[in-house]
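Re: your question about G-protein coupled receptors family 3 profile domain-containing protein

S., sorry for the slow reply, the queue was backed up all week. Below is exactly what I fed in.
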Amino acid sequence: MGLIFILGLLGFMFEKVSVRVHSAELSCDMQGKFVTEALFKEGDVVIGGLFPVHIESPEPDHAFTKTQQDYLCQGVDLRSYRWLKTLLFTVNEINQNPVLLPNVTLGYLVADTCLAESSTLRAAMSLVTGHEKTVGTDCIGAPLVPVIIGDARSSASIVLADTLGVFDIPLVSYFASCACLSDHRRFHSFLRTVPSDAYQAKAIARLLVLLDWTWVGVVAGDDEYGKSGSQLLLKELESTGVCVDYVEVIPKSHSPSRIKRIVERIQSSSAHVVVTIAIGPDLSVVFNEIVIQNVTNKQWIATEAWSTSIQYTNPASLPLLNGTIGFALRRADIPGLGAFLTQLSPVKQPNEPFVKEVWEEIFGCSLAQDWQPSSNRPKCTGFESMEKHHNIYSDVSQLRVTYNVYKAVYAVANALHNMLDCQPNNKNEPCPDVTYIDPKQLLSNLNAVNFRTPVGDAVYFDENGEPSASYDIMNWYLQESGQVNFVQIGQFDSAKGPGQELNINLEKVVPISVCSASCLPGTRKAVQKGKPVCCFDCLPCAAGEISNTTDSTECTRCPEKFWSNIKRTKCIPKVVEFLSMQDTMGIILTVLSVTGATLTTTVLATFFHHRETPLVKANNSELSFLLLGSLTLCFLCALVFIGRPAPWNCMLRHTLFGVSFVICISCVLSKTVVVLVAFRSTLPGSNLIQYFGPIQQRLGILLCTLVQVVICLLWLLLGPPLPSEITGGDF
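Result:
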């Protein structure tokens, strides 16, 4: 489908390939051959350039039912125009360098892409053909430009790389960072001086983990940059413990209802961190809506697309974006560029394209010949001071993408230098002719360049045509004057080892962005049904289990002789509890035991004192003394059950009580039998009483006691009672 689209677009495009080229040196037969406005300078080798000077392109006729008419793009982008002027400045700087490309003059042919794929492709085809016929009609002749610096957008770069790659025409982008362009088998003629978004996704993931932001939202653009970037970020976050609450896509139509719904989702979400992966024009409509809905308490994460640019914001949105953390391309100072940019003048450069519109945009005035006092804008004089007027075009304090343009031009110049600086070999193969630069040979030299820019940075491309990745981490500080100060708080360098790529130093307290608060020690995490793993409940550990770390996923059971404390945070030795004199139960039992023994002993003493009385003798004093003595022992046996269990007292308490109790019961039984026999002996002829005399009574008690003693001995020998531990709950 992509090939069909490109072929159809090529057919449509060459119905009328018309670009208005502005140069006093351009021949008349070249006039009117380009779609959009272009800037031309003649040279031995002409470098092509594509820049989105305008950001609003009219919708093309996708039905292909009529010839495309000339049109004018709208909305000047001062930042992009600075990139364009940087190419011009760099070409002039190289031409003045006696070492680099001596005796060779570089020229340029730069076109406006209007921030649209269709106009970008038309402009690129016009640069490499120079005539109305389609590419491939005359494959023998060299193209008008053998290399193109551009494009800024990933989506457009994909279209260009697919198309120009067929003819091995090198394309060196300064801002197309989509990781999809790393496929060197498909995009073999594509190189870039901007790092791949794969590194930026990794850097953002590292930042979120470092600052413990585990609950975030993602807002992406509806293009290759946004789609690929968001997918890479989600993949990087899979194993980090960071969860994404929502992924919202900004439509290219900027539908008010869709934008409103996106901002409402941001507002209602409990995620306080919003990661944006979109170009500035797409985000500008979102920033306007957050002002309307007053979206506060959000931490914005910016990509290199807008991390150091406020041109897509408005004064009302700046307080809401204060504190934004962004990843910016490496900054550099380019000597002489600032003075070159301020030389812009509609009076001195009346025929140069874009100057009039840029001047009007900078000073908010009009250069129209038919200006009327009733116009919305005041009239420009053309002599306004560029140095005294602060604007993004002449601001050279944040040269990042600008520096990429600078490096791209130098990369092409060094490749040409290496290509032209040759000696004929033994095969008598001629050196390249400056009048005919073979794009394929230039591409080979571009892939092999390794040099240092005048700034001092090394420039080279890896096997995928990409540079090493390095980002400055910037923080937005809104000053009282309303100006935004971009402060570098860290850096990400992919060349460093794992775990050392990210270095950040935040002086202020960062917000908390989590779905669920951390589970304290003594609890465990339980994932909420149907929600990401970052959303969980904190459940207390069960008795006998502990968790001594924050956000524990499970509780650990205590060892055998340990138990969990009240807070379930540590295992403590189990408390050995037994009946003691200090316990209430022990005190009560002791009092009852001593009282019972005392009363029984008192009765025994009374009986002994009156042992010679008829009453005591008639009551069988011998059995009475034995009964009272055994009963006293029964009461005192309770005291053996009080105290720490030991093998000896475990055996004693049971056997002593058993024997004492049997003696007591035997005495009661004997007395009962004697009384029963005595009543029955009153009958005439009854001699039963003679069988229950004192000797028989003693033998009966002794027999019962011996049975109990045997039972106790067998018990002690076969299964003696020993102290044992019974596991219980919290005491």
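Residues 647-680 form the longest helix (34 residues). The first strand starts at residue 21 and ends at 22.

Happy to talk it through on Thursday.
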